[in-house]
Design goal:
single chain; alpha+beta; wza like fold; Outer membrane lipoprotein wza fold like; 2 domains; three-stranded antiparallel beta sheet; elongated
Length: about 210
């Protein structure tokens, strides 16, 4: 009997250690203005397929015009074919077009404006799982989790919002963070709001009833 009881205690102790190990591996809760969001202030919009561009070449209206970025991330102008534009800022693109046009125009000055925004997929924020309208959302400067949830219509009645995860690439490594969406959108607890970054993925699981 004593031996069996000792074995029972040993098994219970081992189980406790295993449970303790699991609990110590909990994901850190993301917090507003934490180290997660240090690069949000450095955000510059990147051009992507589907964007509409207005390219103005000073004193050369014949080579200026409006262009839609093709699915391959390129545009074609009257003087330069197949210009790779996806993943570049409007300013970067303007300087590159100037270099290309310099073969035909003396000292070209180019301004690039984006009039319809889609952005590259790498810059979009994706919401999957138990959102009312799960989708990829174009990132906007200073976008927060609350802004994102408004864009996708909030949570479904079956969502486990406080069990949601944020997937983010930090220093080249993919990391997961706990986010408490129900606490934010249902209880109005602004402390659960976090800054979003381009490329973030939010996963909202289903609740187990």
């Amino acid at each position: 009997m004593l031996t069996d009881f000792a074995k029972f205690l040993g098994i219970g102790f081992l189980a406790a250690l295993m449970l303790g190990g699991c609990s110590s591996n909990k994901l850190p809760t993301a917090t507003t203005h934490s180290s997660l969001t240090t690069s949000v202030d450095d955000y510059d919009y990147l051009i992507g397929p589907g964007d509409s561009l207005d390219i103005f070449v000073w004193r050369n209206p014949e080579v200026s015009g409006s262009f839609i970025v093709r699915p391959d991330g390129k545009i074609t102008t009257s003087l330069v074919e197949d210009i790779e534009v996806s993943g570049k800022t409007p300013t970067q693109l303007g300087r590159e077009i100037e270099e290309s046009l310099a073969k035909y125009i003396r000292d070209p000055i180019v301004t690039v404006s984006v009039t319809n925004f889609s952005g590259p997929f790498s810059e979009q924020v994706r919401v999957i799982g138990e959102a009312t309208n799960p989708q990829a959302v174009n990132y906007r400067e200073n976008m927060t989790l609350l802004d994102l949830m408004i864009a996708v219509g909030g949570l479904t009645e079956f969502a486990n919002g406080n069990g949601a995860k944020l997937i983010r690439v930090v220093d080249g490594q993919q990391k997961e963070y706990k986010i408490k969406i129900s606490k934010l959108v249902k209880n109005g607890d602004i402390s659960a709001n976090v800054d979003m970054l381009p490329g973030d993925i939010v996963i909202i699981p289903q609740a187990w009833f």
